[in-house]
Amino acid sequence: MRDFTSDRIKAIKPSGIRKFFEIASTIEDCVSLGVGEPDFDTPWHITEEGIYALEKGKTFYTSNSGLPELREEISKWNKRKYNLNYSKDEIVVTVGGSEAIDIALRCCINPSDEVIILEPCYVCYEPDIILAGGIVNKIQLKSENEFKIAPEELESAITPKTKIVIMNYPNNPTGAIMEKKDLEKIAEVIIKHDLLVISDEIYSELTYSNNHVSIGSLPNMRERTIVINGFSKAYSMTGWRLGYVMADKAIMEQMKKIHQFVIMCAPTISQYAAIEALKNGDKDIEMMKEQYDGRRRYFLSELDRLGIPCFEPKGAFYLFPDIRKFGMTSEVFATDLLNKQRVVVVPGTAFGDNGEGFVRISYAYSLNALKEAIKRIEQYITNL
Questions:
Q1: Within 10 A of 67 (CB to CB), how many other CB atoms are there?
Q2: pLDDT tens, 20-59?
Q3: Residue 189 half-sphere exposure, CB side, CA atoms within 13 Å?
């Protein structure tokens, strides 16, 4: 019998993160610092709105783009928070931010169009580009520049085939951010070369020094920016599977068609809960962010005490320490730490080849779990 699967999908590697979790699931008494998921329950007032929706029989399809009242709240919230000006008709509610990234790329890529990604980066960008028929062009971000993209790096990577740049700040896996002055220089290059930015801003609410700035809010960038965001990280709603994408109407009219035929609509109950999150969830975000910041500062100080280099991340809930001094690849280090001390971290190479020499640590865990992890990591490096 012939092989019915496509060459394109066979060329794509499975997620390095999931592969590692499968190994970890077979080992007892693990301390996991691997999952990029808030450890807080969804705030009760948000959950309650989902329950009310169920009780009131609000379990039918919504419009393809999502509930009009939710899209209106998304529009107002982004205007208030980030000075982004997208109307409710320029917003589609998606099944998580991952669907939003996928449909944005499929909407805009023609065969052989080139898409620049900034490595290390979120695991889905490269596969999604390939599945959409595009060509991946990678920029290797530098730890000494705190994993920010410099305008000269972007300028030198652009070719006649370049069409899109994907940016993810605050960043997964590094926790890096871009300040307004950084983004203004990047915007100049984007405009000069007539490019489109897909800005993945799922961690926009989790910054610890400066408030997040969206590149789509800068002059002349609105029409050439697709903004991705959602509810998973800010409101601890990962299992509700709800995100959204915002873009100029000309782009959005085409993007809607993909969402319409592939998904129909995002989960109705989750949409009602999300309205409550946007209206009354600011205090929940602040509470969670305060907890994350305390954990961030604790773990950074402990890594410093142990002599493990790590730049100070100012966003998301990740650390990206440099483990090159131990003379192991990222995968060997992470595997050995798991086998000998039952601590789960993610090899930096799960986020691209440029992640070699680093591991990702999530501090979206209790302080007690972080303290136990540090204790075990210290034992591990002492015995090397």
A1: 20
A2: 777 777 888 899 999 889 999 999 999 999 999 999 999 9
A3: 20
Task: Indicate the DSSP class of residue 249.
Answer: H
7-42+283-382 classified as CATH 3.40.140.10: no
| Token pair listed for 192 | 């000069």
pLDDT in tens, 357-368: 999 999 999 999
Which residue shows structure tokens 């903004």? 227
Query: Who contacts 192 (Cβ-Cβ below 8 Å, separation ≥6)?
Result: none
Q: Which of 191, 203, 204, 202 is nearest to 165 (CA)?
A: 191
Q: Is the pLDDT of residue 140 over 90?
A: yes
Residues 6+ apart with CB under 8 A from 63: 265
pLDDT in tens, 78-97: 999 999 999 999 999 999 99
CA 162, CA 110: separation in Å to the nearest integer?
A: 11
Token pair 């580009």: residue: 129
Alpha-carbon separation of residue 190 from 183, 220, 228, 383 (angstroms): 10, 10, 18, 49
Give residue 114's identity as a one-letter amino acid code.
E
Kindly report the CATH number that applies to the domain delimited by 44-280. 3.40.640.10
The DSSP string of 98-146 is HHHHHHHHHHHPPTT-EEEEEES--TTHHHHHHHTT-EEEEEE--GGGT
* C-beta of residue 149 within 8 angstroms of C-beta of residue 118: yes
d(CA 154, CA 157): 5
Phi, psi of 245, rounded to the nearest 5 degrees: -130, 140
| Whole-angstrom distance, CA of residue 17 vs CA of residue 36 | 10
Task: List phi, psi (to 5°) of 188.
Answer: -60, -40
DSSP H helical segments within 171-309, as ranges?
A: 180-192, 249-262, 268-280, 282-305
Domain limits, CATH 3.90.1150.10, in the chain: 7-42+283-382
Query: Does the pLDDT of residue 17 top 80, yes or no?
Result: no
Q: Where in the chain is the domain with CATH 3.40.640.10?
A: 44-280
Mean pLDDT of 282-307: 98
Eight-state DSSP code of residue 204: T
